[in-house]
Predict the 3D structure of the following.
Amino acid sequence: MKQKSLFQSLMNSFILLSVTMGGLNLAFVLYMLRHAEIDIHITLPWLLVYLILFGAIIGGYSLWTASRITSPLNKISEAIRQMRQGSYAQRLEMAGSYEFTIIQQQFNDMAAQLEQAQANNRQLEETKKQMLADLSHDLRSPIASIQGYARHCTLAW
């Protein structure tokens, strides 16, 4: 199943909002026509009810749309902050639109590569320390042998 893009999803929700607002407008006009005979007379209380409903629908749509965008962005931001602190094991787990799914996959791939690079650097550092310890031991052994021969020679004379 192909995921919808964020744009398509927001457009669908905007169409739903438009249909809802159209329905509210139609209901308001039909109510006014039914109770006003021929003359359309809008009273202040009904206008306030209409404006409150209109504002509530627009406010609800705005909050819903904003949360659909900001929630994944907050998760991405938190994961980046943890990575900046050195936690390369952090992975994104979120459900979202097509664009956020692509970002999630790319982020998780990048995190895996950074985690592998960190493990390789650790292994390289351990190998370097072991090589220096071996080299130091190998250099000390001949020097100790030469010092022993030199002492023996000085004692023998």
